[in-house]
């Protein structure tokens, strides 16, 4: 199981290091992108370039007469409008995207010949699209669901798409089951409910009948399925891929994205409320982070397994329902990705981007994972109907920065004007161009990894794919006590929505009991079912019995509270100096303080200053923040105490285990709310208290409060 050692990052190359040339690169890239249209200072024209004199009135026979068919200006405008929508993605319809760049930490030539992984000076542009899976384009961001994490690397050897998720495994083992799985999880066909959720009969019917889903379903019932932010998710390539070096030596790899922002989640109650209070919560968070210069960063790493070690594990490397515990093969860091530019146009970029796991470059190759093999076909196929033909690679966001001459011609929406007469190869008419390139490393022609296959043509699942429970058990047993409770509650909530008792019973007895009997008993108890006494199959005891990397608690991040949002509650009579002090302290940490008042109108400080606020408390409820601060000021504190909205704000923040701080005279307010100080509910505004508060915000939740918060109504 030896993993090849790739070069470690040098201090100057690690994520977070500023890249001074980035602004230049960005400007250069954009100047090459002639397709970005800026109408500033330009006349309004028709699509044919005719200047428009009147865009307010259609052409009529008399001011009160019928409209005329000859009004080509109105007809062009309305015809275009009539066709403005394209089919949404079958899955992953709801998404948000951003541009950025990837930079390798060093030369990884030992592992791969891929050009973008050779040189730490090279900047490779990327476009990333994050998504939910189940809901339609307009569904809420914070629903319980898997998140897509798709990255397009525009390398100078062609586009490489790493189309992954925020969970390292998948529901099924063979692509032929994908339509069944998706039909089961999607809104039910008779009434199109529920939107953006898996808490319904068809989903649980399918997964309780198909035990290979057990591992992924427990991930989906964990906090990973309700991320705090798209910036705070890990990403995984899921399947085993291959990296191939210039000598043709291949290794199996699993791709990982590790966020510098840490891995953090919402609480379930918070996620549900956010879906209504701000359905765009995740896309707004990503957008604002980039606009305010808090550009999110991830480290790309790989778990490397030599070809010779393929069969040394208790599970099959080709089985996408299995992960490689990091205790067995650590993640080798390769480089960093920074997202630093928002799209100019959502439709043109986020909606039209077309990913495909089959888009690889020399130095990267596939494995025989039967799920991956099916995906290689599906993505191009789906783009043909979604984007209206096989020329979707010509849409600006999908164009490689590498040249892409070929003998392909015509079809719907062809934009390239191919010169020459010979659209075939070999040819002598056009001098034989475009010609093949030999695969030798220096020349760069793509060469598939030569794998010996000697097999019967057969429809069969390999026996090595048969264990469905040991890694689900590993996952549950690697969780902290809080995370385990959240999983129990999630299964109980979802199964509680299932109408058919037989499905609930089957999930508890035939799936959960095989994962962990305590989990099964707790869920059974919440559903009023008898606790199963034993599982239905013999589950292998895997090694290791626990894996630290699986618990979010072990991914705190390393950028402090940069980019975290803190609400500062103010009302008339607030102590201006106390406000200034906390705002300054938060800004010094690059956090984002926002002043919230009883309304959107400015408040008056105790010394008569007019203090503008960012929003009204009601408009930006506590669920939108990572922490709350209440500055000093007798009249302001009394006003907050007398306001139902403010009291609810504070109680809800407490219930959601948010770090909270109040200047000393806030004690009375705490008493009326019946809340007690704890490791994250602090009194005082000395630097020492601020520092404790920052630490608590960095840790994201005050977990020690969980039991006390249970009884708080909010
Ligand atoms: Fe996808 N998947 N998928 N998927 N998938 C699509 O492609 C499919 C799978 C993933 O932001 C579709 O362009 C099959 C695994 C992401 O645009 C479609 C199978 C993983 C995205 C499709 C899988 C993913 C998609 C729908 C089983 C994680 C969104 C629209 C064989 C490793 C990409 C589209 C974006 C999108 C098919 C399984 C990730 C229909 C057949 C496993 C992140 O082609």
TrEMBL record:
Keyword set, alphabetical order: Heme, Hydrogen peroxide, Iron, Metal-binding, Oxidoreductase, Peroxidase
Cofactor or coenzyme needed: heme
Enzyme category, top tier: oxidoreductase
CDD domains: catalase_clade_2, GATase1_catalase
EC number(s) per entry: 1.11.1.6
Sequence segments annotated as region (Disordered): 1-28
Catalase core domain segment(s): 45-433
InterPro entries, A to Z: Catalase, Catalase_AS, Catalase_clade2, Catalase_clade2_helical, Catalase_core, Catalase_haem_BS, Catalase_immune_responsive, Catalase_large_C
Comp. bias regions, Polar residues: 10-28
Reaction(s) catalysed by this chain's protein: 2 H2O2 = O2 + 2 H2O
Function: Decomposes hydrogen peroxide into water and oxygen; serves to protect cells from the toxic effects of hydrogen peroxide.
Family according to the record: Belongs to the catalase family. HPII subfamily.
UniProt-recorded name of the protein: Catalase
Organism: Pseudomonas sichuanensis
Chain's gene name: katE
